[in-house]
Amino acid sequence: MGHTAVVVGAGIGGLAAAIGLRRVGWEVRVVERAPALADAGAGISLAANGIRALDTLGLGTAVRAAGRGQYTGGTRTPRGSWLARMDGAALERALGSPIVGIPRAELHRLLRAALPPGALRTGVTVTAATPPGPGRPDGPVRLAYAAPPDGDLPLEADLVVAADGVGSRLRRALFPHHPGPAYSGSTVLRAITARPVDLRTDFEITWGRGAEFGHIAFADGRAEWHAVLNSPAGVRHADPLGALRRRFAGWHAPVPELLAATRGQDVLHHDIAELATPLPSFVSGRVVLLGDAAHAMTPNLGQGACQALEDAVVLAAALDGEPEVATALVRYDAERRPRAAAVAAAARGAGRMGQQLAHPLAVPLRNTLLRLTPSGVALRMILRHADWTPPLTRAFTGE
Asked: Is the pTM of this model over 0.90?
């Protein structure tokens, strides 16, 4: 069995994959195209499946300590009335963990700290990862780079993990006939407040017509907010905060307070793309796709990062003790592709019935149905995606 891997992409999934592979005995290098790790980003909510994956990787305790459990909140209308309440305590009883809110940059730092010095290189673009041909099924993957800064990068590896995001260069090379990412119809603006905000809930989303505004409270009193809007792709604003204040004028507190506590230069704006057409496989030879490169999904269930963390744990577990890499990758593909496709489809459906819904008759009907939904039914819908058990191996259990 080979023991060298190159992970392409230093996002949440790529870093988690590197940690998992190292825990099962592999030598791993991570290469990142960005010249510097700026730790830009807003906040993230990690459901119990993501926390369980982090527990398996040895990072769950640190993430819980740096984050804030989401026990209170729910879904509201622009005037402030409640459509559904969140019972974080019930989730914790059912799953062993509440949803945890944490700044994305802090999660990245914790993941990077779990890797040894020198394991991560920035400013490196992988231009090709050529799987072994039919005549050499056990041969290494050959890597090519765009003007690497020096010559110490591996030119071959027993495994390449393509964790290079929704616009994955490696996915395009491996599956040239796949249509690639599609615009979801929604764009998102988000930021972390520059100062603490007095919030009465840990997490909220508010649905208007074709619009959503939500927040995640952090342990230090600051908060992440996001505004998701139906919009043509590519629309940008000279003054994003001014545009949002106009768009959300009259919405309930704390929407105005969150915007007022934000600096204009901190606002991020991205169009939301997804792999609406599932890939035929997450594997090509000894190149394996992971995270958004494999199954980019809309954020409506908050499962994108959690699914990437699941990928990382399942990949490492499949390789642990398996003498044939190809056999392990078949197992990974068989286990991950159906689950990721189901979660992605559910997220797309949640967006269409939630943020994207804009018809003046459909919105009040949806709101009425939400108010009438028993809390137990709502809880089971969350459990459907968050109740995931990591595969256990000796490397992960310490036995």
From this structure: yes
Domain membership flag for residue 364: no
DSSP summary character for residue 158: S
Structural domain containing residue 27: 4-69+103-181+275-354
CB atoms within 10 A of CB 391: 15
Q: Rounded CA gap, 325 and 137, in Å?
A: 10
Alpha helices in 124-254 (DSSP H): 169-174, 240-247
Give the CA distances from residue 112 to residues 44, 87, 393, in Å, rounded to whole numbers and listed in that order: 17, 32, 23
Distance separating alpha carbons of residues 214 and 299, to the nearest angstrom: 12
- pLDDT tens digit string along 323-378? 899 999 999 999 999 999 999 999 999 999 999 999 999 999 999 999 999 888 87
Integer Cα distance of 359 and 210 in angstroms:
8
Using 50, 70 and 90 to split pLDDT, how confident is the model at 39? Answer: low
The CATH number for 328's domain is: 3.50.50.60
Residue 265 within a domain: no
pLDDT tens-digit profile of 187-228? Answer: 999 999 999 999 999 999 999 999 999 999 999 999 999 999
Note the pLDDT tens digit of each residue in 116-128: 999 999 999 999 9
Collapsed DSSP state (helix, strand, coil) of residue 369: helix
* Domain count across the chain: 1
Contact 388, 49 (CB under 8 A): yes
Nearest CA-CA partner of 59 in 23, 8, 98, 95: 23
Using the structure block, give the residue that is written with the tokens 């109740």: 387
| Token representation of residue 217 | 């409270």
